[in-house]
Amino acid sequence: MSEQLHTALGLAAHGVPVLPLRAGKVPFGNCPACAKNACGGRPNMKTPGPCACPHPCHGWAAATTDPGVINSSTWARVWREAAAVAYHPGGAGLTVVDLDNVEAIAWARASLPATRTVPTTRGEHWIYRGAMQSANAVRPGVDIKSTMAYARWRGPGTGTITALPDVVRALTVKEPSTVRPAGITVPALAGEGERECRHRTPAYLDRGIAMAEQRITAASSAVHATVYRTFLAVLSTHGRCGCLTEAHTARLFTAAQAKGESARHCTDAWTNALTRLGL
Description:
The protein is an alpha+beta fold. It has helices at residues 3-13, 67-70, 73-81, 102-111, 166-169, 202-218, 223-238, 246-258, 263-277, and strands at residues 18-22, 26-27, 84-87, 94-99, 116-119, 124-129, 135-139, 142-145, 151-152, 162-163. Helix content is 35%, strand content 14%. A hairpin with a 4-residue loop joins β5 (116-119) and β6 (124-129).
């Protein structure tokens, strides 16, 4: 049994989906029947399809915990040729923060909660418990590897795996630029009474604000992103008729600050939502 196969079976036994990598840290290519995704893709890919290929096709989507597949004669050839073992972090309920240089490591030590760390060729992998969207280059030298991605197995690392923090989830949230397009003037939402309100009763607005408060209060992760999207939803519904007052916005800001948002973050999120809607 090769070293890679032994490692893969050990990881699979602990619920970590694995796949072989060839030289260059890349997955094995699709078999002839699956070339150019002619099969329609494996069922657990983003675009579901009927493929039940026994070969290690389709990159990260080939990752499995089935020892029968891993140790099958079909996979025997690739294990003989494999240069390394990879795993699908999201499939194991994990997120890998891939730090590619010393500057990225310094940022992580200053900004992220301590967790299990694994040395890599050029940096470190910080592993958290919890899955999220994968993304590359979320900041200089930092990639996020979780769902629909693979990471090379480099050993168990050191330290205790901790829960995925909001600060990592927020790295993949793209907010619009705060630079206001030329020619757009932000109207004074508070106290503006000249326009006819399209809502039949004030209760409609009150219910909307209450629901927005509840959405922010209920957020258990990605609080900053939730606050921004909630502000965006409120302004898209109520921002053009002039019925929002300072009392309404104060309720939203209070709910956000109770979840740990600063007054500055609240103001930035509100301004970004106004810009997004052209208000």
